[in-house]
Amino acid sequence: MGQASEARPEVPVLEVKDLAISYETRKRDVPAVRGVNFTVRQGETVGVVGESGCGKSTIAFGILDFLGTNGRVVGGSIKFMGKEMVGASKEELQEIRGNNISMVYQDPMQALNPSLTIGSQLAEVLTAHQDITRKDAWDKCIAMLERVYMPDAPNVMNRYPHMISGGQQQRVIIAMALLNNPSLLIMDEPTTALDVTVEAAVLELIEDLKKDFNTGIIFITHNLGVVAKVSDRLCVMYAGEMIEQGPIGDMFARPAHPYTRALLCCVPRIGDSLSNNRLWSIQGRVPHPAERDTGACIFAPRCDWRAQGSCLEDMSLVKNCLIRHPELVSISEDHQSRCFLGAETLKVPWDEYARGQRKKLVHIPEDDDELDTLDRLLTVDNMRVWYKERNPSLAAMLGLAKKRHVKAVDDVSLRVIKGTTLGVVGESGCGKSTLVKGLIGLEKPTQGKAELVGLDITMPVKQRDLSMIRELQMVFQNPDSVLNPSYCIGKQIARPIKKFKTVPKNQVRQEVERLLRAVKLAAYYYNRYPRQLSGGEKQRVGIARALASQPSMVICDEPVSALDVSVQAAVLNLLNEIKEEMGSTMIFIAHDLSVVRFISDFIAVMYLGEIVEFGPVESIYPPPYHPYTEALLSSVPVPDPTARRRSIVLSGDVPSPMDRPPGCCFNTRCPRRSVLPDNGKICEEKIPGFQRMKNGHKIACHIPADQLTRLAEESGHQTEKTA
Questions:
Q1: Dihedral (Cα; 286, 290, 294, 296), 10-degree rounding
Q2: Are 302 and 321 in contact (CB under 8 A)?
Q3: What structural domains and CATH numbers belong to the chain?
Q4: Which residues, 6+ apart, have CB-to-CB distance to 299 below 8 Å?
Q5: Is the distance from CB of 621 to CB of 719 less than 8 angstroms?
Q6: How far apart are CA 204 and CA 226, in angstroms?
Q7: Residue 298 and residue 304: Cα distance in Å, rounded?
Q8: CA distances in angstroms from 616 to 250, 373, 436, 634, listed in the order given
Q9: What's the pLDDT score for residue 440?
Q10: Considering Cα of 71, then 72, then 75, then 79, what sign does the dihedral take?
Q11: 560 contact partners, CB below 8 Å, separation of at least 6
């Protein structure tokens, strides 16, 4: 068993002092982390945030001594339960790892063996570290799975990883990490790839387990809303250095370092005014470890305060940033910041740090008749995308088995007005991407109509002529999967320009450079290759290539879900600017409702292949809303540790689109159906029609709209009504 119960309260679970980690390269040792100090106590969660490349995961792997063959701790101390781990033998570290220190990884499928059952992998954790029979280990594993709210735990033990959902896989990894009752649990981006509803359930689980096991937790993430909910202390990393740390309340209410303030200003919030059309974004990017100058402030090249803020009042401070390296200074008790301004930053409220906000240009009429007269660019009527079940059984081959279909998109109707952005949200498997594939031509709709600027787009892309393909372009989630590593950026953007002949041949280079400038990239990026660009720069190239054909509509499929908050803010600002300057029409798919709210004019909420709610953005976020929309909104992590909004944790998983429940598609998980007579029996028997409100807002639910409003207000889940 772990040592959590044996630890003395005065001995920290983990104490890191002056930690320095370097990687050996052909030229020289490259410092990845330097001068890091923090402490983790029993029952305490320490959040670690920062952009990609800041050294967050390197610290975690340094604690576990998983730095690879060329990485090593070159300085400092790592004490676990008072015992020094730097320089410890492999046998000592092996005894501690897995038994006293456990780690939860970002991608559970990479941590689980696909060829072994869940039970075999869980039981091995116990039998490898404890003197225990396999039967007892099996029983303990079932009990732990039940403890992490795994439905049907005994049967899950006999399944393989691919047979359970992503949220269930993450729960298996958490159960595995807790089996030996570790004193320290390291969680590296454990919720990044999860839907907001699953994320909410995992975060609730982490809070419960922390109380039950009294475990110290290091929670690594780039999501400030998540870290605000689970952490007691916060450490902010930048370019391998700890630039600010302190109690979670202080860090959000009184952030002192310009980088921390900039990160907070990059995050779109549910309660922000809808008139805001621009987020704060941090210029430049995190320097590569080989390019970091330890003789100056590492954040100085990106610091807006040095360039145009408070530092200009004292030119000596500007000079100091360029020639001296700042030390951590005390801002208040237990709160430190690595900035020459020190506590002077607190004189300027951090929420006034964001500047240059602009107004939305799109006018959404209040009258339904006026709404119907607006210029429609895309019209979708009763679209279905069904897939035939692949049944290899003998009965199916003989034609004796009943034919079944995966109803990925079922009877969807949409109107997209020219010059607006339609946001499409929902959990994984709800049909968002399949709907887009049907529109773009990658999947042929089984039924229904779809017209773009009067052109029928229900045929596959291979059957479409160039004029139709030109009108509809797409920005994908992962730019690496669509950029050819063998060709320079300029040639890849030039290809659609030449294909669709948007400009004469002698003006192609000029048009590429214009598009690069439009997405905030300099002309010299023309000759760069994808490997020379950051993630945010690659996504900008993907946007430029989508705009190269001068399309009528651009579809963005999760374009910012894998990006840091600072890069995400820059890309969202860019999309808004493109819409304003070029009059582009967009469909924006995401699972982050705060992002969708910021970018969209209209929102469609999808569940199990159907649209359950649709309307203008200002009508969707205040009540009334569909019970599913309410659950999604309540699950959005709020970057405010004082917020005490309880998430609505939906029970069970999304039903299979091949075996849809009768009646309302949401009835098996609906937390509100009990307010109806007979415990909502009508929900199981009858498909609900749309309740229509003003501004084109409609909700597919049997519960009356006024009752939905009252339920949301009583539960305290309603969002702030914005201007």
A1: -50
A2: no
A3: 11-89+214-358 (3.40.50.300), 368-603 (3.40.50.300), 615-715 (no CATH)
A4: 238, 239, 243, 257, 258, 259
A5: yes
A6: 11
A7: 13
A8: 36, 16, 20, 19
A9: 92
A10: positive
A11: 539, 567, 568, 571, 572, 590, 595
How far, in Å, CA of 665 to CA of 657, rounded?
10
Handedness of CA 210, 212, 61, 172 (dihedral sign): negative
d(CA 350, CA 337): 14
Neighbouring C-beta atoms of residue 685, cutoff 10 Å: 12
| Joined tokens for residue 97 | 């790892």
Q: Which of 642, 624, 633, 562 is nearest to 594 (CA)?
A: 633
For 610-648, the pLDDT digits (tens) are 999 999 998 898 899 999 999 999 888 888 888 776 678
| Unique residue bearing structure tokens 């809070």 | 207
CA distance to 212, 297, 382, 481, per residue, from 467 (Å): 62, 53, 25, 25
Q: What is the 3-state secondary structure (H, E, C) of 227-291?
A: HHHHCCEEEEEECCEEEEEEEHHHHHHCCCCHHHHHHHHCCCCCCCCCCCCCCCCCCCCCCCHHH
Distance CA 489, CA 472 (A): 21
Longest CA span, the chain: 85
DSSP notation for 396-421: HHTT-SPP-EEEEEEEEEEEEETT-E
Q: How far apart are CA 483 and CA 428, in angstroms?
A: 25
Residues 6+ apart with CB under 8 A from 628: 605, 607, 612, 613, 666, 669, 670
Q: DSSP per residue over 107-157, as a string?
A: -HHHHS-TTS-HHHHHHHHHHHHS---HHHHHHHHHHHHHHTT-TTHHHHT
- Residue 176 makes CB contacts below 8 A (sequence gap 6+) with 102, 121, 122, 125
pLDDT, tens digit (0-9, with 9 covering 90-100), for 198-228: 788 788 888 887 888 888 999 999 888 889 9
Specify whether the CB–CB gap between 546 and 554 falls below 8 A.
yes
Is 703:676 a contact under the CB 8 Å cutoff? yes
**Closest by Cα among 39, 223, 101 to 592:** 223
**H or E element at residue 466:** helix 466-471
What digits encode the pLDDT tens for the residues 660-673?
899 999 999 999 99
Q: How far apart are CA 632 and CA 638, in angstroms?
A: 13
Question: What was the pLDDT predicted at 717?
Answer: 55
340-376 pLDDT, tens digit per residue, is 888 877 877 766 555 444 445 455 665 556 666 568 8
Rounded Cα distance between 663 and 685, Å, is: 5
Cis status, amide bond into 624, omega within 30 of 0: yes
Q: What is the CA radius of gyration of the chain?
A: 27
